[in-house]
Amino acid sequence: MLQIRINDQIYEVPEGITIKEACKIAGVYIPSLCYHADVPSGGICGLCVVKVDGSALAYSCMTKVRPGLIISTTDKEVLEKQQKHFDQFMDVSHPPPGPDIEEVMNYLFPKKTIRIRQAEKANAISFYPEKCIECQICIRMCGDVVDIGALDDPTVSLKGGKCISCGQCTLTCSTNSLTETSSIPKVLSHLVSKEAKFLLVDPEVLVSTNDSFSSDGLVGQLCIEKVVGAARKLGFKYVFDNRYSNDLISLEMTHELLDRIDSKGVLPLINSNCPALVNFIEKSNKDLIPNLSSIKPPAHILARAIRRFVASGKKEKPDSVFIVHLTGCVAAKDQVKRMQLTKDIDEAITVREFVEMINMFGIDWNSVSDSEFDQPFTGVSGASSLMATSGGLTTSILRNIHERFNGNVNLTPEMYSFVPKLETNLSMETIKIGSKELNIAICNGIASFSQLISSPEMIQNIHFVEVMTCQGGCINGGGLPKLKTRKLAEPRIKRIKEIDIASIQMLSAESNGTYIDMNIKLPLFKHGEGLSTHYEPQERANNQNKKKLLVGIPMVMYGSNKGKSTRYARLVASFLHYSSSSMNSVTLDVMKKRRTAIFIISTFGNGCFPQNAAKFYQLLTTTKEDISSVEYAILGIGDSNKGPTYCAAALKLDEQLKKMGAKPIMDLVKLNSSDPDGGDATYADWSQKLSEVLGTGKPRIGMAFLNKLQKIEDKTVHEKPSRPIGFEIAEIIEKQIVSPPDFHPRLTKITIKLPEGLTYEVGDHVAILPCNDVEVAESVISALQYAKSDVFNINSGDAIIPAKVTVMQLFTQYLDLNGPPTTSLYQTFYNSAMNDDAKKAIEPLLKEESPERMEYDKTHNTGEVIKELAKNSKPSLDALVSCISHITPRLYSAASSPETQPDTVDIYANEVIFDDGKRYGLCTHFLVKKEHVKVAIAFRRGKFKYPRDIESPIIMFALGTGFSPMIPLIVHRQQLLSEGKKIGPAFLVFGSKYRGSFAGLIMKIEGFKKDGLINETFYAHSRDDNKMHIQDILKKYPSKFWELWQEPKTCVFYCGPERGIPDELKDILLEITIAEGWLSREEAMAYNSRHDWHIEGI
């Protein structure tokens, strides 16, 4: 073995290996695309270049190590050379996909974008922030095209916000960051069961599924028999045509419309067969709920018929029926969860999910045998297909009315036909049939419906309104195969029209008030029999009250090209405690009710309005409405280098608002985006003045609240400091280093004595609020020339800081001086600089990705930055408290059980030391220092709970300190045994880099095994001689683990890195299930889904 130095750390490595191999042993990543361990190195790609001995560059794959060699992989010159070699080696416009290439690109060209919107899984739509590239196409689709704006405010969830689940955002998302919430796992688990599986197929499915398999790019090919055949191959026993129920709701809605007209009921009647429309009305226009048709959605009517009549006719038990709705509508996933409809359909899947299942099962679409729909429900009209297009339902209803008054005389497919459009469109017609004169409106898209209902004059004489949320209708549904543009969906419309024209039966089948299947003459329903439902507001009472209270609250609107205006608008909206909206999504009526309007608007091109503001400005210039009751403020954003077009849109807006009588509450401010800080200082100054004019809460600078602190005289705070909100003060009574003396980082077991009344449960997390070192806090306060004994009243919005604190308490307990500096911190010192030279010195640090900033951040934490910049800049305490990151609680797994230690709790802390050897992890440093005995502590509920069935086998995977939450589980097993109870077997797989680092823990584990609390133990150490990972243990002993895994009750407890490893373990267990259980992949997936997984991250 010989010693070398890699990135200032000393390592011992074997003689005769290359630098690349040595770095792999040390855990240091070096990019490469031409290297393979089994093939002689060639130095082809040049990506593995490193700096040796401080000057020379060398290929690490070809250079052998020698004693005392100094290696740097992080040098700026190394990275530049690697990036250059990558461009030369990958001489293509777009690198091919692959995990190795992706890993190299992430290393060489890291992205720092922060996703404000959190990961979410709603009934219909899921958001995965790690896939989001912040292109904002989804925001513009939702706000500017669909006219909902549910994605405008990233802090509002999909569930609780304005989202109507139409799924149009998923059609435009190129990375699948936004996608329909998958129902595939649930459907797969039922496909392998003994239940009778029924599939209900919507008409748009029949003209879109082939789009995913077409080798020549043809769109809209009719594929009825293929769809049915593929469904049967997937395991669906019965496949029914949902067009029958389209006919049925057309007839029921015809009855309902005529009844309302004759009885002078609530008009206009609005269709209810579009679930996204129903969501829109229930969320945003609840006054229109009585106008909605009371008829159930088509698929739910058919599902109820299957459960009531058909299942028994097919000799299937109604309680063993599993019904899936195959549709192009993402909102149908919301629909199946409705309280009123929950007993009808079990799951809804989109066409994209159907295609994914076909590919998952390895089914060759082109070789699928044609098959026909099952009977009954096969006798359908041509109009039932038309209902997949905008205007199709209206056509079907008008045909029914024609038949009632005129019989079938002169009825042709062209009569009452409307040409569906693939863009927002409002069509209003007056149709005379017999003695009836009907005023109808067809709204293609929610935006046109909003236009209609915002004008009382337009809607007051309308009898029937048909709304399709997706432009063009269901043939452009959010769950269909993605097209480059919705205009490419024209062939789907054409194919639907051809089905109607070719159909022998033009009308829905009705005979003496009974609905029948024309093919088999089977009476199936009676008019009105169990076909109705009801709708209700989705808002809870507190949300309804909140809307009432919005009258008079300032409205924040933006017009944005690249997102800067949107970002500022969100910051302003945050201190008004409401959300922002694109200008196009706001009506003048709403603006007048809110009375105060805040506009933040960019200028596009040669003095034009951004796309999401142009419609609003056009409305202002064409309306004669009086808005003299409105007050406003404008922040214009532009580039001063553009000359006369600088902030032109803001100036035009200001001029037009004044012309219409609106009154400015402050002068228009121009923000120059070409300023060194991008205009952030201008925004900070403007937002501060705005908050003072409005008399509202605190604005934000960067992403932090601007806090107001008030100095007070209160000596009691010195004598008896307030504890952090939500925390108790406990005492560290014992610290024991459990790793060998020569192993680093050190692992320390810490025992904390709990204050009276504080209790915990098995599986809980221990929340520790650490402190900065006292000497560090004092040096920072001294540099700022603050008095550490001063007392302030603070209303920070922070959930932890108490109302009264001293300066010393702030800088010791609450402000993170050890963490990385924020852009807001540099901005604050820039704004407070004493002279131009000081400003120029800070300017390069204002941009996160500048080389100067990246290099400076490597060697300076927040406290060090403050001490350096405070020499020439003296910011206020208010601003510093706002822009310094606050100390947040660190979570540790409780490594003891309350059954044996009710008054104390154990945790394990692995001391964190960064690469430079000088910087450290704040909390572990705080915990292991001997002089610290008091600690702020709270408990948080964890995910680890012992199985209710105590005989369930358990498999534990623990990585390093991830063993901590396993200890209470094992101690609980000891308690159960002492009570004479029978418990299931337990396996433990423990992994770490080096066995020696956790020698004390391993002795404890073996003690548990000796006492019979663990049946089998397995160890994997990735840096020791065996070089094993916990995944390798599963692969090495498949039969052993199958002994436990073959029991469906087996529970898995995993604690380690949350990403990657759990999925790999699941994949390996899937292969074990296939091999040991003699199951197909689909059967194994269904079987494995029954096992419970409990995953904790470290």
From TrEMBL:
CC cofactor: FAD; FMN
Domain 4Fe-4S ferredoxin-type: 123-151, 154-183
Top-rank EC class of the record's enzyme: oxidoreductase
Domain of life, per lineage: Eukaryota
Gene3D superfamilies listed in its UniProt record: 3.10.20.740, 3.30.70.20, 3.40.50.1780, 3.40.50.360, Fe-only Hydrogenase (Larger Subunit), Chain L, domain 3, NADPH-cytochrome p450 Reductase, Chain A, domain 3, Nucleotide-binding domain of ferredoxin-NADP reductase (FNR) module, Translation factors
Stored InterPro entries: 2Fe-2S_ferredoxin-like_sf, 2Fe-2S_ferredoxin-type, 4Fe4S_Fe-S-bd, 4Fe4S_Fe_S_CS, CysJ-like_FAD-binding, FAD-bd_FR_type, Fe_hydrogenase, Fe_hydrogenase_lsu_C
Span of domain 2Fe-2S ferredoxin-type: 1-77
Documented EC number(s): 1.6.2.4
The keyword Iron-sulfur is annotated on this UniProt entry: yes
Chain ranges of the Flavodoxin-like domain: 554-691
GO molecular function: flavin adenine dinucleotide binding; FMN binding; iron-sulfur cluster binding; NADPH-hemoprotein reductase activity
Entry keywords, A to Z: FAD, Flavoprotein, FMN, Iron, Iron-sulfur, Metal-binding, NADP, Oxidoreductase
FAD-binding FR-type domain span: 725-947
UniProt key word Oxidoreductase: yes
Cellular compartments per GO CC: cytosol
Assigned protein family: Belongs to the NARF family.
Cross-referenced PANTHER family: NADPH--CYTOCHROME P450 REDUCTASE, NITRIC OXIDE SYNTHASE-RELATED
Name of protein: NADPH--hemoprotein reductase
